[in-house]
Amino acid sequence: MFLSDMVGALKRRWYLVVAGAAVTALVILPAVRTQDRFLASEVLMIQPPVSQYAPNPVTGLYPSIAITAAAVANRLNTADAREMFLAKGVTGTYRFEPRNTGTRQQPRYVIGSMSISNVSTDKEGGLRALKILRATFESELDAMQDEWNVKKDLRITVAPLVPPTSTLLTHSAVRSLMGVALLGMLGTAAVTLWTDEAITQRRRRSTGPLSTIDSPKWTDHLVRSAQ
């Protein structure tokens, strides 16, 4: 389709262009007035039990410990867990993400750590939600070990690796305005061109091919010219 054809289609379906512009204008206002959001996060170290043979818990870390923590994280990232956290007062978006501290030469979980984050519109509320998330993670880890009858002195525990912090996520009204306007223009153009093509094809099918009755009747004999 050439540029002239696109312009012609937009002119023919001008009402769709007007509707798309109206919808875009309605979406721009809430996008520009988006509230500030805060990212509350902390990192926990998943550590094995301390014993006389391994007094430093960091020296006794194995990938299986990190995998155990990842299993708990998967359970807490489900839809049922979100409803549970919502009932406990956790607002916004949260996430449990296992962190891989391996290298390219040794791509595995060397030190089992868990990143817990929560994005909300309230700084203090995000930090409170972070405490609930951490407490729930610890209780789920204990419940898993209770299920397997792990002794108290042989249990996996957690320790703070990065303390809880809250960071403001910057929001640019100009970028939001430009982004919504661009998406609105592209979406309106796509819908308009598709609709114009669909209507054109429908009209062609409704008219149908010419029948033999509609074909012209030649009455004059064809005369071959002498060479």
Structural summary, described in words:
This protein is of the alpha+beta class and 227 residues long. Helices cover 50% and strands 17% of the residues. The chain is built from 6 helices and 4 strands. It has helices spanning 3-12, 14-32, 63-76, 79-88, 123-147, 173-207; strands spanning 37-47, 93-99, 113-120, 157-169. The chain has a 4-stranded antiparallel beta sheet with strand order 2-3-1-4, with helices on one face. α2 (14-32) runs antiparallel to α6. The two termini are 46 Å apart. The relative contact order is 0.19.
Stretches where pLDDT is under 50 for at least 5 consecutive residues are none
Overall 3D shape = elongated
Sequence of strands across the biggest β-sheet: 2-3-1-4
> What is the rounded distance between the termini?
46 Å
Q: Which bin fits the share of residues in helices?
A: 40-55%
Strand content: 15-25%
Structural class: alpha+beta
Give the rounded overall mean pLDDT. 81
The biggest beta sheet reads: 4 strands, antiparallel
Could you tell me the radius of gyration in angstroms? 32 Å
- How many β-strands, per DSSP? 4
* H/E element order: HHEHHEEHEH
What count of helical segments does DSSP give? 6
